Amino acid sequence: MKLRLPGRSGASSEEPTGDEPTATGRTPSFAAMASAGVTASPAPSANRGPRLQKGVRALAIASAQLLLIAAALVAVGWVLGKLWPILLPVILGLLFATVLWPPTRLLRRLRFPPALAALVVLVAFLAVIGGLFSWIVPQVADQADELADAATAGLQDVQEWVTGPPLNLGEDQIGQAVDQVINTVQGNAQNIAGYALTGVSAVGSGLLNLVLALVLAFFFIKDGPRWMPWLAAQTGPKVAPHVAALSYKTWTTLSEFIRQQALVGFIDAFFIGLGLWILGVPLVLPLAVLTFFGAFIPIIGAFVAGAFAVLIALVSNGWQTALIVLVIVLVVQQLEGNVLQPIIQGRGLNLHAAVVILAVTAGGSLYGILGTFLGVPVAALIAVIYRYVRDELDGRTPEVADDGTRVQVTGDETGATVVRERVATPAAGRGDAAADAPAEDDPEPRPPS
């Protein structure tokens, strides 16, 4: 059988039957053979090969870029890890400065010299902290014996419970379990001593970092307003507005975090402490203080503080009181999470709860208790920088303030300062009133960020 191919003259005039494939421009001639298979997949186009090469090339370039970025992040993390003993006091000093700056600014407006205002505020802060601990420590010492007796009585009750129905454990079995625990402790005495020595060293290092952070906080609140002009002067006219805007945003984020968490922690501590006082649970003030500081570690801190309160109530007053305390803690925490934080914080740090948990977990895994405290502020600062870069890439001019002005550096060889200049086109969505507001020099440069 012969087929007549299109465009060929002199081919046989024999017409193919309906059951026989016809050779066309899309079907090669060998497909007309009886032994050829037929598939529903489309035939490859002439552009498939070049497109595949282009896609592989783009994938290789993207993979190389990701590897370079990952290597850079690893290098930055390694450098930060090596510099952590220096960075930690700086970060703590900045956090202290966010607390101490408002009263310092008030004193400076009252014509106090910068150094004197910073010194007065720092001494008052230390006096408040010292007075609080001097009030707490005697209460803990006075009620330690009472709690020890209550714990002993509680252990005796537990022993009586396990020896009775339904467990019916004998005295010998309990004694063997106790002996096993004692032998385990004795067998690991050397490791326990090593852990204790490490703990003492960590406490000493923590105190040293705390003292250094307070010294740095003094200089931050004393010379803080000079920071932005100095940093802006090291860059240039084009970069200065971005440096100033990012400094202001990061400083504002840290300040808002500290103030909001302090207010939420105070409310939690007040209501939980009030409930403990009404129920007659000992160590009300220490537990309230623990609840207050626990609020600075979102989610996990509230859980740990509430667990301590329930445990003390169980040891001292029995399981009925402990159950009531548990209900109080749960109610207060639910009010905090569903009512207080949305009202007080608003959008707040704009971090999802899952991100908060991951930040606390990662910080605790890397740097212990301090890591759990610093995890959320660091994550919030990373989010601020990310959003700023994203808005800049989208052309939203994040360096423009709400009043339609931006910071610019000015001066000469004798010195530099920052002023707010009017931009030609304010950021979108900022309103006509803000756009019409007159630009004026920043009366008080921002503290360090």
Q: How would you describe this protein?
A:
This protein is mostly helical and 449 residues long. It has 12 helices and 2 strands, in the order αααααααααααββα. It has helices spanning 48-82, 84-109, 114-163, 171-187, 189-223, 227-233, 240-279, 284-294, 300-317, 319-345, 353-393, 432-436; strands at residues 405-412, 415-422. A hairpin with a 2-residue loop joins strand 1 and strand 2 (415-422). Helix 7 (240-279) packs antiparallel against helix 10 (319-345). The radius of gyration is 35 Å and the shape is extended.
Strand and helix layout:
Blueprint: H1 48-82, H2 84-109, H3 114-163, H4 171-187, H5 189-223, H6 227-233, H7 240-279, H8 284-294, H9 300-317, H10 319-345, H11 353-393, E1 405-412, E2 415-422, H12 432-436
Antiparallel strand pairs: 1-2
Helix pairs in contact: 2-3, 2-5, 2-7, 3-5, 3-9, 6-7, 7-8, 7-10, 7-11, 8-9, 9-10
Please describe the structure with a list of short key phrases separated by commas or semicolons.
449 residues, 12 helices, single chain, 4% strand, extended
